[in-house]
Fold this sequence. Notes:
This protein is of the alpha+beta class. The chain has a single domain, classed as BirA Bifunctional Protein, domain 2 (2-Layer Sandwich), CATH 3.30.930. The chain is 41% helix and 10% strand. It has a four-stranded antiparallel sheet. Strand 2 (111-116) and strand 3 (122-127) form a beta hairpin. Helix 1 packs across helix 2 (28-60) and helix 4 (146-153) runs antiparallel to helix 9 (222-231). The radius of gyration is 19 Å and the shape is globular.
Amino acid sequence: xxxxxxxxxxxxxxxxxxxxxxxxxxxxxxxxxxxxxxxxxxxxxxxxxxxxxxxxxxxxxxxxxxxxxxxxxxxxxxxxxxxxxxxxxxxxxxxxxxxxxxxxxxxxxxxxxxxxxxxxxxxxxxxxxxxxxxxxxxxxxxxxxxxxxxxxxxxxxxxxxxxxxxxxxxxxxxxxxxxxxxxxxxxxxxxxxxxxxxxxxxxxxxxxxxxxxxxxxxxxxxxxxxxxxxxxxxxx
Length: 236
């Protein structure tokens, strides 16, 4: 029996009902009146999911953490940082979970990401907006090893699940001058983030099979995540 993991339903449709209501009443008075509901139907199921997903994550890589602490763990805080935003609504209307690399301590570390939002759920992998020196390291690795990048980011198993899509404001206008201007993946050398994503249905999230299906998706991004880790000197 060693190694067998039992399927379990962690999230119910009530998580999406709560987030829908929050989007309609995104204000402190409503939050204060409903915070106990948030803890019951969102936070506790999410922390339980994180705890249970740990063994599945370890099978993909032992260097990523499933941290079920209430503060400072894999579950992102529900409070928005409004200091530099025109949108002053105080609470996030989604649930964010990031399984970060053990060497990282923030959202800019390599990671596996889960985003729960009514009719807009998705999962992601990779590294979002790394610091400039780190970005250069990853671009250099792509530049120097196009075959390895092809296997990591263009292979059928990966592409059947994951999509690397960048808006124009998320890419440089041209390939950095120190890199190969005629590189076969020149567009990827212009990227500011190195992430891939895929949409998931709300019904999958609330099914007992979500954990195993999610682990299978993350596993198919193993080469992609491994390439990024290797590029910046981290183990995978």
